[in-house]
Design brief:
The structure holds two protein chains of two kinds.
Chain A lengths: L10 H34 L1 H5 L8 H10 L1 H14 L4 H24 L4 H4 L5 H14 L2 H24 L5 E4 L2 E4 H8 L24 H27 L9
Antiparallel strand pairs in A: 1-2
Chain B lengths: L1 H24 L14 H5 L2 E8 L3 E3 L3 E10 L13 E6 L5 E8 L2 E2 L11 E10 L3 E11 L3 E13 L8 E3 L5 E3 L5 H23 L5 H8 L9 H28 L24 E11 L4 E10 L5 E8 L2 E4 L15 E2 L3 E3 L10 E9 L2 H4 L12 E10 L4 E9 L1 E3 L2
Parallel strand pairs in B: 2-9, 12-21, 15-16
Antiparallel strand pairs in B: 1-3, 3-7, 4-8, 5-6, 5-7, 8-9, 10-11, 12-13, 13-18, 14-15, 14-19, 17-18, 19-20
Classes of the chains: A mainly alpha, B alpha+beta.
The structure holds copper (II) ion.
Amino acid sequence: MSASQSAVRSRAEAVSASRTLDYMILFTLFFIILGGYHIHFMLTGGDWDFWSDWKDRRLWVTVCPIVAITFPAAVQAVLWTRYRIAWGATVSILGLLFGEWINRYFNFWGWTYFPMNFVFPANFIPSAIFLDCVLVLSNSFTMTAIAGGMGWGLLFYPANWPIIAPLHLPVEYNGMMFTVADLSGYHYVRTGTPEYIRMVEKGTLRTFGKDVAPVSAFFSAFVSVIVYFVWHFFGLWFGKTDFVTST
Amino acid sequence: MKTIKDKVAKLSFVALLIAVSTAMFYTPTASAHGEKSQAAFMRMRTIHWYDLDWSKSQVAVNETVTISGKFHVFKGWPETVAKPEVSFLNIGIPGPVFIRAASYIGGQLVPRSVTLELGETYDFKVLLKARRPGDWHVHTMMNVEDGGPIIGPGKFIRITGSMSQFTNPVTTLTGKTIDIETWGLGDIYFYSFLWIGIGIAWMWYWCKSPVFVPRLIAVQAGKADSMISDTDKKVTMGFIAGTVALTAILMGSTNDAYPVTIPIQAGLMRDMVPLDIPEPTVSVNVDNASYRVPGRSMEMTLTITNNGDSGIRLGEFNTASVRFLDADVAEDEGSYPADLLAENGLSQSDNSPIAPGETRTISVSASDAAWEVYRLADLIYDPDSRFAGLLFFYDEAGNTQMVGIDAPLIPSFI
Ligand SMILES: [Cu+2]
């Protein structure tokens, strides 16, 4: 068959070929995003996401949404402008979570025997759906960055609260007070992660008393908006086809 | 079509490999056997562990073993290592094969980082509750911020039984007894996968209809803004409202279920109480010291003055956890790791008691294969070629006195 001839002979064949391509591209895309995003998130969010005794109301709430909004912004930039695809953020987060759950279940628990209630990944799905929905409804990246980015940051803590609240029960142990999560961190020995590496409950938000989680979430949301813009342009640049010379 | 399929399949395979390997490669450090790779000066001039005891060598799952002893924080702490202002009493085990049930410095529980003073000696105790069967090397260990882990001697402990029998019960301040090993797992799985399901539903709604090629063609044909239908928009509004509402509802029901919660606890602990050790009545001057490479032995000339009121004998030289004993004077009570114990490794030109008031110059040699095995001999390649260690003197009543020494070392290659 010569190059000028079509590979398909009927409309039905074209439809089925297109559908096959859909599945293949989706599969490939999912794992490519997973690979890049997972590494990025490990390097930037790392220990905050690995351990329950790092999931605090100050730094975890602040850091995780900021470093996590990167790939969703970039993937949305490509998928929405080129395909009008509405799930750029959600597919990124599903990829990240897939990689994380495999990593935590098979490596942290299966290989090293840390209990899963100590090493579960954080939940970003509500944030991701919110970001995608704002893009569909507004058809504007500026709106998505501002309204979507704010929602992304603000939803993070409440979305995770049902998961972490049981681990924040107070326990008296040998004369000191701990949360259940602190006690997990003390009991389940991490030889390579001494306690002083833990960055939690540090900062200058003391004036807000006990209500620091909302303040941290607002701050995180503002920064997420800025990071969204930056990574939007990364995405656009990375999604260019100039690299491929047409033949 | 076939070639495209092949290409996509190949690409998918490569992507899968990359992703799987990246996702899989990270495991928190499980090994605790870095002791030999650590620079010799680090082990000789930082923390000296002594009087160690591992209470049992075999335990069943759920039983507790205690590692206790003393550690001396060396006065001549190397310039190149950060001072132990923020330190954490750790334990070197391959992952959570034991849980650390408790750890104490000077009788104070130390779940967090502490400040240690140079020149002081502290007693410590770590209680480990057996969790996973196997033979595990258990090391004493101190982590120093910006200084790294300082690993002490290690000993094998066997755990018998089955990990499925392990329980870790505690009682919360709200009066509930929970097993930390499994507490909260149901909520973690339920809420995580509930939301993952909702995320998949969102994608599934859009992927029911053609995804990539037809949409790319439509966008390129300038039809982008007519591609989202009114139904799509209604579904989207449903998803966004549903997501926000469900998040709020779940947060409310969680607050009802757990009305009392506290923040993560953290903060540096100061004021560790050191042991009250009287000034030694022995003074030692290192006149010279050399390491003989072929003989694997260190030779030093010491001038010892006994200012006490009882005759004393040098019984032990302890450096980097290796104990060189003079069998005539001192012996180990039996629980020290054999590879770190040179029971007859210390010989002296004169080991008779040094009388009160007497000053004597003796030559002492500490020789054992441990110099090589534990790579202490690498000391001669250090930029600051010094050695350090603890000398233990025994008086007539059997009391010991500890004197730290710290001096330059000249290697001899012939
Ligand atoms: Cu070891």
